[in-house]
Amino acid sequence: MKIVAITGAGQGIGRALAWHFAEAGYGVSFIDPDNEAGREVLAGIGARKAQGLFQRGDVAKPKDISGWMARTVKELGVPDVLINNAGIVIRKDVLKLTPAEFQKVINTNLGGAFFASQAAARVMAKRGEGGAIINIASTRAFMSEPDTEGYTASKGGIVALTHGLAISLAPYRIRVNAISPGWIEVSDWKKSSQAVKPKHSRADRAQHPVGRVGTPQDIAEACQFLAEKAGFMTGQNITIDGGMSVKMIYAE
Ligand code: NAD
């Protein structure tokens, strides 16, 4: 049985990743601070006849990550794949953002991806059979909305971290790649108590060259490709945004 370890799989894209890989026959281990969301995801993994492990924890805390990885190895086995998906955003006037707020976003999004990669790489290297790490970045690594500097910087950092780790981990046959999603509608992938309606309109769909907003499945399929097929790819970023970031926009 192949094992995938996913951060932030309680809701949203991570939830879809957990269930997608469970359907593909993987054992799925994940870390998330949300107990209610985590239990729902674990039940969904079981319903797909796959083995699951849920660790309640915070990827901004390296100790939580090392505890999760140790438990994963003990109860499921060494991960073949790590997906660094956990991410938060704080939207606040750039002139008012506090050091603690900026650092929280960086420590969660970028620090979490590094320390989870390090923990997974240690056990993958020890086993000696290689592995794959997939970092979920964002098109915000390359373009911006106002007042989201921490998020944007963390995502740019993840793209750079991806090629850094790809070089350092190549001797262990661990490939490291990133996916930069554009607008992904996650409303169908929220916990029961937090059901939200899709926020997109006809105009939102039309602004994407492919004519729709993205889905978590779009990201899950690309993750499976990077995990299983992309043997000659490492250190790369794949943008999955329906063409939004390559569309020229003129004011008139
Ligand atoms: P979401 O908010 O729906 O889900 C995030 C999950 O991460 C939740 O289960 C949450 O509990 C968990 N999480 C939050 N803080 C955590 C922490 N400290 N430790 C562990 N888990 C934590 O988010 P989403 O939209 O599914 O986004 C998932 C990833 O995809 C993020 O990295 C995000 O930046 C990226 N992304 C999303 C979109 C989009 O349009 N949805 C676009 C580009 C990139």
TrEMBL record:
It comes from the Bacteria. InterPro entries: NAD(P)-bd_dom_sf, Sc_DH/Rdtase_CS, SDR_fam. SUPFAM superfamilies: NAD(P)-binding Rossmann-fold domains. The keyword Oxidoreductase applies. Keywords: Oxidoreductase. One of its GO terms (molecular function) is oxidoreductase activity. Belongs to the short-chain dehydrogenases/reductases (SDR) family. This is NAD(P)-dependent dehydrogenase (Short-subunit alcohol dehydrogenase family).
